[in-house]
Fold this protein.
Amino acid sequence: MAYFFILLAIGQQYLDETHARSEVPGISYFNTSTRLMDTQSEEPTIQKIQTLLLVGFYQQGLNRSITAFTHYGCAVRMSLAMGLHRRMKSLPLEEQEQRRRLWWTCFCMDTVWTAKLGQPVHVEMADITVDTSELITLNDGFNSEILRANVQLAVITGDIMKTIYRPTVKKTIDDLLSALRKLGSFQKNLPPRLKSSIIVHNDRTVANLYLRLNQIVIITIRPLVLSVFIGQQDTNDNSTEITQAIKRCVGAACANINILFHLKEVGMFSKFGFWDVRYLFSSLLVLYMSSTDKNLIPGGRDLNRLMSEAGNFTAIENEIRLRELDSLFEKFRDEAETEAKLYQHSDAISPNTILLNEISNIFTTQEETDDEFLDFIRPFSKEVSPEVWKNLTTNLQSWDSTGYV
Ligand SMILES: *[C@@H]1O[C@H](CO)[C@@H](O)[C@H](O)[C@H]1NC(C)=O
Ligand SMILES: *[C@@H]1O[C@H](CO)[C@@H](O)[C@H](O)[C@H]1NC(C)=O
Ligand SMILES: *[C@@H]1O[C@H](CO)[C@@H](O)[C@H](O)[C@H]1NC(C)=O
Ligand SMILES: *[C@@H]1O[C@H](CO)[C@@H](O)[C@H](O)[C@H]1NC(C)=O
């Protein structure tokens, strides 16, 4: 029953309805589910793990990120206790396949959330023996291809957290570039079906994969963008590499705003989902630090406003922060009015083609020196009062930080 009610709660969260009532979508179902949930018994079961994952997922949107984290942690521990991470050849194939799917789903959800909070990623790949590919087709509509791609991306995310965001590891630009290369080859080797379209009617799975990929590019390079912006990084050293990496970060931010915009056009944008708010905010912060690609900012801001008007408090909070950024940037930038210039697609080329090209360009930018490009994030500190500069850099550092670095 707890499982049943949490399914209803998530269904309502994603209905994309604007509620006249002030109630958070799905909260009554959620309350019922957690009331019914058995938290005391010693015996882990498949359904308990599924329930924990969904309860954690719903809580992501409730500003309860730590509770979500503990629920995912609990699901992982129960899975380990049941041996879901191990190949169990004695079990019937159907059962093995179900266990396999649940294990990797658990792995992905836990890794993504753990990385978001900047916590240590726990389970090592070397301890896992269960397959990443389908063992048997169950003909139930489950998409094993997308799960496999998500697993690969989660593994790279774990590696990035263990190098770039580990407080005891000294990171170099080479580490950032090597992480980018891994992400690039992941993108290149995706199965053809996942490379043919992003915006699919009634199915966000591929779009979500690309949103996640671009978000990881952003969190990988963001420390570099920030340190160049703040003036800690000497851009004369390794300027080609730095330029490359920053271009990719800005490209990923643009691609994500464009994907979200297209999802909204086809009615698959979730005003109450956690990640859409997050992707948008991370992308916008990158674009604020860059002056080359400001065209997308007004459109991205419109999307955030849409969510905050629907009552999403994460979006409301972000709106307040973005306004503060506006006023800080106004102090030293004579900004030319930029118009909302989200992707204007012509009828001749489908949005899918444009989005896919945009994403593959992120990873294939040619090595070229482009000295002017770096000027956009040259330190502005001398142009403003120390107070404005301090507020600006503190905000950029803390608002979208991953981890405690
Ligand atoms: C759900 O539970 C929370 C906390 O127990 C409570 O504050 C809230 O009013 C409940 N909402 C509904 C609609 O039952
Ligand atoms: C979200 O949670 C944090 C930490 O518990 C709190 O500081 C913040 O005010 C909350 N935001 C909203 C909109 O409730
Ligand atoms: C700059 O590039 C050189 C050669 O590729 C490398 O050894 C060095 O670590 C790089 N510097 C930084 C700060 O990453
Ligand atoms: C800087 O931040 C402080 C504390 O939040 C605030 O009181 C002050 O008004 C801010 N200054 C500017 C110029 O925004």
Remarks:
- The chain is about 60% helix and 0% strand.
- The two ends are 42 Å apart (CA to CA).
